[in-house]
Structures are given as C-alpha cells and as structure tokens.
Design a protein that fits this description.
Chain lengths: 428, 314
C-alpha cells in the first residue's frame, strides 16, 4: 500500500500546519528582521502572547516574529539543545531556577545598555528588577509578579461546611476540616492534594520556621526538618485530609492531571498566576488563599517572585528589535490588557493601573492577593544553585517513597538530606 | 637480474594500476554514487554522533560550556556511587526478563491458532499486527494511561464483580506490570515471523506422527517447537534488544519522571533525564555506552548458548 499526496494537498496541509503552529504570526520570509520567541505554557498563554505579537507586528511591519511554545517539562531540554546547537531563539522565556545558570554561562545578553535606550523600566517594582539581576547585570525582564498560593474550589468546601480564612489558614485547619470534606463527598474528594513532594510548599514551610531551602549553594535545613515535614503530611494522610498516594502520583505536573482539575481534591498548591488557568479547567468558582501557615500569625513564608522573565539571547542577530518587542510587551497598555495577569501581576505600576479596569473577577482576585500578601511576605531568596531542578524532582520521588510506605519519615529525612548534599556537590 | 627487474617493474606496475583505477571509476563509481545518500546518513547521523558520544562519555559536558576531560570518572561513578543507575538497571532487567518471554509465548500461541488455516486469515493477521505498528506511539501510551487509571476501563470492568482496583499506573506495585502488558500487547511482529516459520515445517512430519498415534500436544513439543527454534532464537534476540531500548511508554505514562518511586525508571528514561533534564551529557553518553555493552553481552551470550538448543536443518 502506498499513500499518494498531491502537491496541492501537500501545500494546503503544510500551510494549515504552519498556521496552527504559529497562529497569528506573519510569514517569516516577507520581513527585514526575523525574531524567534520561545516560551513555556498552555494554550491560554499562547493565545494571549500571540495576540501581543500581532499588535506589535501591526505597528512594526518590518519585523516578523516566529513563536513557539511547549509544556514546562519539554521546554528546558529544548532550550538547552537549541543553545548548545547555536540555534537559540532571540527572546527566551526564563524561570528563576534557570536564569542564573544560563546568564553565568554567557548565553544571555546583559540588558543594562538598553535601559533608557529602548527598554523602559522606570515604573518597574524594585524587587522585580532585583530578581532579574544576576551578578550585578540586568538579565531578565520580569513578566509578572507571582507568589505561592493555594487555589481552592469554593463550592466543594462550601458544600462540606468548611470555611477557611484565606490569608490566615493553617495546617491545623487542614487537619481538622479535611475529614469533613472527605465525609461530605463520600470519599470522592479530599480537601487537599498531597503537598509533601512540592518543593515550593516545603520551602514556604521552612521559611516560616525561619530557615530556607538554600543558602550559599548549600541546604539551609537539617535532616530533622525533612523528617518533621514528612511526619506532618503522614498525619494529614492518616486523617484523610489529603488524597491517597496513587491519586497523587497521577499528577505529572500538567494542569489537566492536577487533582483539583480531576475533582479529586478541593484545592491545589500552586502559584497565584495559575488561578486564571485553573479556572478555565474547573467549572466551579475558584478562590485563592496562602499556603497553609504553621500558625495563624506566621509571617515570612511567602515572597513576591517573578513568575517568569523575558531574556535576550547573547547570539541574537537583531538585539535592538528584540528589545523593542520586549519593551512593547511589558510597557504597552494594549499589550498589558491582552495579557491580563495570566503570567502574574504586571511588574510595572503603570501597567498594573492600565490592566486593573479590564480584569475579570479572577484576575482582580490575583491582584488583590499579591497586594494583601504585602504584610506577610518575606524577602526573595537568592538565585538557587545549579542543581535546583534536579532536587525538585528528588523531593517528589522521596515523598512518594514515604507516602507509599517504602520508607519511614524518620529514615527519609536523613536520606533526602544526603541526596541533596550529593547532588549539589556533583559536577555536571 | 636486478637490472632486469628494475627495467621490467616500471611498466609492469604502472600499467595495471591505471587500469584498476579506471575500472573502479567506470564500474563502481555509479554504485557508490547511488549509495551516497546512505553514506551521508551513516557517517553524518550514525557514525559521527557515535564517535562524539564515545568521546563525550569521558568528559563532563553541560551543553552550555565546552566539555571538560573527566577520564573514566563517569564510568566509575556509575558503578560505585549512583543509586538511580542501580534502580534503573533493576527496572529494565525486570522488564526484559518478564516482557520478552511472555510476549514470545503469546505471539507463538496466536500464530499457532492462525496457522490452522481459518477463514479470513489475512484479516486477522492484519488486525493482530496493528498494535505493533501503533505500539511505540505517544497516543497508545496516553490511551494506556486512561485504561489503567483509578477510574479507567480496567477498574470499571472489575467493579462489575465488586472488586475495587487500585490506580494501576500510579501504584509502584503495579505500574511496571502495566508497561509489561503494553509490551505483550504488541506481539504482532514476532507473531508474523512465527507464522512464516510454521509454514516452513513440512506437513508430512505431522502426518507421520499422527499415524504413529502422537497427540497434538506431543507433536507440538517434538516437531513444531524443535523445528521452530531458529525462529524463536531470532525473535528472542530482536525482542530483547527492543526491550532494552524501550522508552516512549514509560516516558509518557510517568510524565517523564519514572515515578512512582522510580518504579518505571527505565534505563533509557534515566539516560534521557541525565542528558536533557539535568544537562549531564557526558554522564548520559557513558550510560549509553554501558547499555550498548550490556546488549552486546546479552546477544553474544544468546549466540553462544544457541548451539545447545537451536536446531538448524543442516
């Protein structure tokens, strides 16, 4: 058997594929400057981003922008191979875990020389500029302010008669109210997912205890802390306040697999900007709260992070044009309105004002959450060490070992600590 | 004599040389020319990367900065100080040891059924072969996720009998078995080869055996299986190599993590994580070469033992 494909068919289908892959992007061969843009995210983010690309290219017909987006897990291998192959896109979306590594290896261009000359950061928050500064050089332009947050299903909690104070709720609340949700839903839905493997949540808990995840490239916690952490979650598991280990293991990090989206839990531990994306997948109204506190008045666990940055490739052939686009992206009211708070609350106060009027209810909740966090938030931690991504994965695996009963919290604490020391000490 | 030699060798040695080159040019050049696309592929995409991977396996290389010479560090670390290497080796060995024999047995069973000359044989043969074509694809792995999830097809079926099944793919006790079942389900290609092998067995042997009163069961053990051993051997080698290389299903089903608790951390998946997740290209290259050596040892072992159990006609 053979498949025949006429030339006309082939052209039509490849044109269609092109249109789908780079929706809203002008054909790349008709322009003077071609820019390539890469980012991670889902369809909601892609639609907004390509909308801004269209606005920009309408004003700048001499520039063509070719966009590409992937899921988080596939994104970093792709960027790394492109970088190694000398094929880096001009504009690269960066995360705080990776930006330091790329910047120190010289594959991202410092932006200081463009400040005031193409790049306007005059209305940016100081802490957002600091987040994007590596070794004294501005590398990343913050695309949004975000913080750790619990996104919860108001209807499920309400039906179970559970009422939490969004800015003050605690792990004790989870322990006492959790069983109510379990009973009210006949065991179908737990109050929370199993958060023992979530690095951001662990970090938040450590910070509330006055510790941190890393300091000077070393762990800033003890094996006993890890044991205590796993014991906390073992008690919650025992009380049926959180979902079972096999339900938790289905969550591979994509939004669609999250227990909140699958109706298995009434909340998810995530970041504030994700409220917008979760709401598109969950029919019930969602609310936003802090990560559970260790006590109602606990402070310093949260911090206002930059959810992501745009960075400029050091090998870009048209850096001025790329800067022009980045500047357009973060400083144009029309772009800001289109982007909303899907990447986080705009880092520029001018854009925050521009966005405020057009935000829907969820968007306004995100802005309010970031503002309310002011009193309880602490300082932004320093850029994590190079192996932070690997340790994030290791915590998840270790938490499963404890949850499935393969290792006790008492053994898991020292075991995980050793693993962290080994990983940090290892050359690449 | 020396003079004579000197004078005669010059024309003698040069004339044929020219004609050899001429012959190569005229007769062989078109052949090599036609092979050129393959040569480019082989040298550019297979041999070149293999050599650079061998070189990289003796280096530390993070993709972003130049490789740094590491000697045998990567190999030493693998065998002395890497629990994840050991874990991934265990997972892969378990997978090979269980999936290959079960898959071959299943393939042979179906081939025997199809070999009885039933109606619509070609249709069945195509249908049974279909999973092999789809097997390594992303779509099937996602389908598998759905079938074996907590509220998937398997548990819906079990619930008819009042059994509440676990979430098969996310429970470390069962997750690897779901992948073994997926591998067995792709029995099509060994089955086709078994079918061809069964056709080669002369019918008169069965007739003679029947006349002597041998049961079907006895005929299978005394005629079918011995005469089929070359095909069994071939299938076993191919499937073992395939099993060692298995990657996509585990990658998709575990979301690239090899979890729960590294229970589906196939060797190739670990290799991928080290290379593209944690940017240790040197270490990943060393892992790849150890896998190659391992497969070579397995294959060599199979060939060495084959003379004791594989019966060739001659």
């Amino acid at each position: 058997m053979s498949i025949t494909l006429s030339r006309r068919h082939f052209l039509a289908s490849s044109a269609a594929a092109l249109a789908v892959g780079a929706s809203g992007v002008l054909p790349a061969w008709a322009q003077n400057a071609n820019l390539r843009l890469i980012f991670w995210g889902g369809q909601a983010r892609a639609d907004r981003t390509y909308g801004v690309v269209d606005l920009f290219t309408a004003e700048h017909p001499d520039v063509a922008i070719e966009g590409e987006f992937l899921g988080w897990a596939d994104y970093w291998p792709k960027v790394a191979t492109q970088t190694a192959g000398g094929n880096q896109p001009d504009i690269i979306q960066m995360d705080y875990r990776y930006i330091g590594e790329y910047a120190r290896r010289g594959s991202l261009a410092p932006l200081d020389s463009y400040v005031g000359a193409g790049l306007d950061i005059s209305s940016f928050d100081q802490d957002q500029l600091r987040n994007g500064t590596i070794d004294g050089k501005l590398i990343g332009v913050s695309l949004g302010v975000a913080a750790g947050a619990t996104v919860f299903n108001s209807k499920v909690l309400g039906d179970a008669g559970v009422d939490i104070d969004p800015m003050r709720w605690t792990y004790d609340d989870l322990l006492t109210h959790g069983p109510k949700v379990w009973e009210a839903t006949g065991g179908a839905t737990a109050m929370a997912p199993d958060g023992s493997g979530i690095e951001l949540l662990f970090e938040n808990w450590l910070r509330q205890k006055g510790k941190a995840l890393y300091a000077d490239g070393k762990p800033a916690f003890t094996p006993e802390d890890v044991t205590e952490w796993f014991e906390l979650w073992a008690a919650l598991r025992e009380a049926k306040a959180i979902i079972s280990p096999d339900e938790q293991a289905i969550d591979t990090g994509q939004l669609e697999t999250a227990p909140l989206v699958r109706g298995k839990s009434a909340m998810n531990f995530t970041t504030s900007n994700q409220l917008v994306a979760y709401q598109t997948l969950v029919p019930d109204p969602l609310g936003i709260a802090i990560y559970p506190a260790t006590s109602a008045d606990s402070k310093g666990g949260h911090y206002r992070n930059s959810s992501q940055y745009f960075a400029l490739s050091a090998s870009s052939a048209a850096p001025e044009k790329a800067i022009e686009f980045i500047n357009f992206f973060v400083n144009t009211p029309a772009a800001a309105t289109l982007l909303g708070v899907e990447r986080g609350v705009p880092a520029s106060s001018a854009m925050r004002d521009a966005v405020a009027a057009s935000l829907d209810e969820r968007g306004q909740m995100v802005v309010k959450y970031i503002a309310d966090l002011g009193e309880i938030a602490g300082d932004v931690p320093p850029t994590p060490p190079a192996s932070a991504g690997e340790i994030e994965v290791a915590l998840k695996t270790k938490s499963q070992e404890v949850a499935f009963g393969a290792q006790s919290p008492a053994d898991a604490g020292p075991a995980f600590y050793d693993q962290v020391i080994q990983t940090l000490g290892r050359t690449s | 004599m020396t003079v004579q030699n000197a004078t005669s060798t010059i024309p003698y040695s040069e004339a044929p040389k020219a004609s050899v080159w001429k012959r190569i040019w005229q007769q062989d050049a078109p052949g090599y020319l036609f092979l050129l696309p393959w040569f480019i592929g082989f040298f550019g995409l297979t041999l070149g990367p293999m050599i650079s991977s061998l070189y990289l396996s003796f280096n530390h290389f993070d993709l972003l900065t130049a490789p740094r010479w590491a000697g045998v560090d990567n190999y030493v670390r693998m065998f002395t100080n890497d629990p994840k290497f050991a874990a991934s080796m265990r997972v892969t060995m378990f997978f090979v040891v269980f999936s290959v024999p079960l898959k071959l047995a299943f393939a042979l069973g179906v081939a025997l059924l199809l070999n009885r000359g039933m109606k619509g044989l070609t249709l069945y043969r195509s249908l049974f072969y279909l999973p092999s074509l789809l097997g390594a694809s992303v779509a099937i792995a996602i389908l598998w996720r759905q079938i074996f999830a907590a509220d998937g097809l398997v548990n819906k079926f079990l619930s008819i009998f009042g059994i509440i099944g676990p979430s098969w793919i996310s429970n470390p006790n069962y997750s690897l078995w779901t992948l073994i079942v997926l591998s067995i389900w792709q029995f099509g290609s060994p089955m086709i080869i078994f079918l061809a092998g069964l056709r080669q067995i002369p019918q008169d042997m069965y007739e003679a055996a029947s006349l002597d009163g041998a049961s079907k069961w006895r005929q299978f053990w005394k005629i079918t299986l011995p005469l089929l051993t070359p095909v069994v051997f071939f299938n076993a080698i191919i499937q073992t190599i395939e099993a060692f290389k298995s990657f996509t299903p585990a990658f998709i089903i575990s979301g690239g993590t090899g979890n729960p608790i590294n229970s589906t951390l196939f060797y190739t998946l670990y290799l991928y994580q080290e290379a593209f997740g944690f940017f240790r290209m040197g270490y990943a290259s060393a892992l790849a070469w150890v896998l190659l050596a391992l497969v070579a040892v397995f294959t060599a072992f199979s060939f060495l033992t084959s003379k004791y159990w594989v019966h060739y006609d001659d």
